[in-house]
What we know:
By secondary structure, chain A is mainly alpha-helical.
Amino acid sequence: MHPQHALNQQMDYVHPAPVRVWHWINASGFLFLILTGFQIRYAESINLMTLSHAINLHNYVGFVVIANYFLWLSYYLGSGKIKLYIPDLRRVVGLAIRQARYYGFDFFLGRPNPHTMTAENKFNALQQQAYLVIMLVLLPAQMISGLFLWKVKGYEEYINLLGGIKVIDTIHVLLFFFFTSFLFIHCYLATLGHTPLAHFKAMFTGYENHH
Amino acid sequence: MNILTGFNLRYGLAILVLCSLSPSWAWGVENAECLECHSDESLTKESTDNILNTEITESLYVDEESFNHSIHNDNGIACVDCHADIEELNWDEELPHAATLESVCCCSCHEESAEEFKDSVHMEIRKKGVTMTCYACHGYHDVKPMEAALVSERANSVCLKCHNPAHTHDWLPAADSHFAFVECVVCHAPEVPRTINLRFYDLVTNQFLSGDQLLDTLGIEYDAFMTTVDTNGNQQIDTDEFDDLILMLKQKDVHAALRAELVAEINPLAHNIRSGSAQKDCGNCHAADSPYFNTVSILLTNADGSIERCTIDRSVLQSYYVNHFYLLGGTRVKLLDKIGLLILAGGACGAGLHLLGRILTSPIRRKKSKK
């Protein structure tokens, strides 16, 4: 359904199809990567599958997530929508403080969200900064360190340049814990719509319902 | 009487001398005598191949330099100790010993290895008409001391002569890394004792530091190494003692990293490679409590290939001193697990506390929305 045909004027088409496809592939990929990641790191305590299966699955899903990242990148760069992620440096501090105040205080008192999600201004100041760092720094770092761990001999020179395999592993593992923790917060914050499931529905339909 | 006593004395002395010397000395054939002919690269022998019935020319050349660096020469084994059917050389003849010598039986000395080999897959292939001799893998006149050898030298000099591991390890994730850091027999002879060999690698010269270089730098002798480093005298370098060693090296302007490899000890059990018994359960190695890392040693290598082995606490494998060797799960940095737990707890608690606040303040919002 195209935004022009939105039946309800309060509905805003904020998640175009490529974004939704990317998001759900990424989400399921992350779940598999986290499960297999725990299995790989704690093989002596977790018995979901054999270690070699866990590693192979982790590798395959990792490549899906990497390919998916390029779907995201090409869509956002090609459509120019990447600017959704670029904060307005003159206003960002004030907006971020207001948004943090909302999450930490105003929300509990039923005060309105200072940010309204629209197709042109999708992210609030905190989301904008967090996603900018995640998508352009942390996720690429996780993908590159994952690639290095996948073919240690093949990338030996780069690995040595960065200080050795254990340094690469440390980056990968710390980001692994960060992304797992991020998933808790991300899923929780997604329940803060006008109903607990509103944002989840929007990520399937593309339409955000404004109340 | 005097004559008899003198004879007994001489006889007794002769027996004593013969008993105290190796057979080569007793028979009076020295390596140098053998090498008078066998150091000639053009020395060959014509024989008939008994399968194809064709004439073949065999080289009888022995590379003296290689032999002098061999483990057998290091242990004082002379030519005639193995070629034991040569009791003397008759220099009056053009060929001073028999034209055809008996096959050398390695098992005369290496009995235990031979015993283990009997049950191995390499013995089993005789049923298919393939005869594996000891020297097919190990060579003969230039058998190198292997204790100090790197994985690449161990595998290249033995298993890779026949096997191409890339064709048979499709199931193994990160196969290249395994081939680079783990000796074949660690998995293929599951009973063999294993050890982690650690060596200092000079990051400036991009070379391994030999024992001599390391000790020269520290200004101590081999004998003094452990007493200098192992300050609490428990015959093991503990992590804090290792910190001190690294500090000592840094003070001497040596910037070295530790390189590790998982190898088999030089042990007869390494010959017991049986069909289908290779270690395929990754969890045996990739677990924090894996017995594969029970023995960890720093190697101080000598120029002749011999080594001094200094035991070190296995926890050094989990440290950032050993940055170029990492087994998923097996040598993981435990500190990261604690940091990871904090990160996860932070996320879960953040969401949980917000949810709690949300539940507790829901009457306020309900009241406000009614208004």
